[in-house]
Amino acid sequence: MTETPGRVSFEVSGTGWKSQRTHPIHRAVETFVRRAPPAAARSNRFEDPLANAEIKVESQHLTELTEQKEELMGKVQTLKKELQDWRSKLDGQVQSYRGEITELRKTLNGEVDALRNEFMDLKTALKQQLELTAGLAAQNDDVSG
Q1: CA-to-CA distance for 116 and 110, rounded, in angstroms?
Q2: Which of 42, 3, 37 is nearest to 21 (CA)?
């Protein structure tokens, strides 16, 4: 890679292929590469005992959080299963009650129809008695009058 202000040239070794890039991302990569600390400085940062202690503490904390997450996920799964079981039982009860209501409705409709027929029979009988009584009263009036 060769540097020119505002441009980055890439050369693929062994191919003779060259490309000049002026895209902002290519410039950002160039800037990042130029500002990166030397390899020796990068390797020394993990030799710091305080950093190692911090990494261990963070690792332990991460392990604890992972365990807590697993425990909570187990509880959530248990609650989901309990909810599903409860819903199944509730659905069963609803179906049972619907069946009972359907049977009660059929029985009630049958009784209402029977009462309606009985009422119609009583109404017909009452009309016949009224007609008979009116006819007898008219005959009595004719005979006495």
Answers
A1: 10
A2: 3
Task: Indicate left, alpha or beta for 14 from its phi (over 0: left) and psi (-120 to 50: alpha).
Answer: left
Local confidence band at 144 (pLDDT 50, 70, 90 cut-offs): confident
Tell me how crowded residue 9 is: count the other CB atoms within 10 A of its CB: 13
Q: What is the distance between the alpha carbons of residues 95 and 86, in angstroms, rounded to a whole number?
A: 14
| 132: Cα separation from own chain's centroid | 74
Contact assessment for residue 11 and residue 18, using Cβ atoms and an 8 Å cutoff: yes
Per DSSP, which regions of 1-145 are E strands?
Answer: 2-4, 7-12, 17-21
Q: Residue 29 corresponds to which tokens in the numbers above?
A: 């990569």
Q: Which two tokens stand for residue 122?
A: 């009583």
Strand partners, 20: 9
Q: What is the pLDDT of residue 30?
A: 65
Cα torsion 83, 88, 90, 94 to 10°: value is: 150
